[in-house]
Amino acid sequence: MKGKISTKRGDTGTTGIVGGDRVDKDDIRIECLGELDEANSSLGLLRSKLGADHDWEEGLRRIQTELMNLMSHVATPSSFVEKPKTPLPKDSANWMEAWMQSIEQSLSSATEYFLLPGGSEISALCHVCRTQVRRAERRLVKLNRIDSIEPSILQFVNRLSDLLFKLSRQEQQRSGIDEVRWRLFAGEKE
Questions:
Q1: Which of 7, 91, 142, 158 is 20 to 30 A from 70 in CA distance terms?
Q2: What are the pLDDT tens digits along the chain (190 aa)?
């Protein structure tokens, strides 16, 4: 039957990757894919809480689509000759940086402080997404040491976590909730 989800081939703790090889389910490549999938699912939850007419909707949807595209590249070992047909997020770093700059301009103050995650539900969810993206980034760095991945993937994930931090701050301000400062960044003086 076409499109069958349960093949039972993973019952012994292995899974297939692009190219037909089977690897353990705790293989670093599978770990990366799992972390990216978790972050993407949380971004979907964030979008569902915002609503379709929210000004973040288009950008977050684009990010989710690009995450799916880059996951197809992460799933493909560098030794596999045929590369995925899905596009890599080549211009996303610039696009996300422009979005971050517009957010910074809308904020009443810059921050030189570590902030406690929280505030509104949306702001807290942005922080959850941010930490999941950071975890995925750490796993991708490890994979990159074993089997090189496209630099644009690492760049995309790094910018995404920065963007989510800025979105959390924007949401706090929009909600009229004061940020809770923990302490100054190292080297800063009050």
A1: 7
A2: 566 666 665 555 776 677 667 776 879 999 999 999 999 999 999 999 998 999 999 999 999 999 999 999 999 998 887 877 888 877 888 899 999 999 989 887 666 556 666 789 999 999 999 999 999 999 999 999 999 999 999 999 999 999 999 999 899 889 888 765 655 556 544 4
- CATH, residue 157: 1.20.1200.10
> Is residue 7 domain-resident?
no
Residue 37 is inside which H or E element, if any?
helix 28-50
Say what the pTM is: 0.84
Instruction: List the structure tokens of 190.
Output: 């009050």
Please, what's the b/e burial string for 108-128 (b: 16 or more CB within 10 A of its CB; e: otherwise)?
eeeeebebebebeebbebbbb
Domain count, the chain: 1
Question: CA distances (Å), 134 to each of 17, 96, 139, 160, 179, in order?
Answer: 24, 16, 9, 9, 21
Is 12 among the domain residues? no
187 within domain boundaries? no
- Whether 78 is covered by a domain: the verdict is no
Name every residue whose Cβ is closer than 8 Å to that of residue 75 and which is 6 or more positions away in sequence: 17, 18, 29, 33, 84
DSSP, collapsed to helix, strand or coil, labels residue 61 as helix
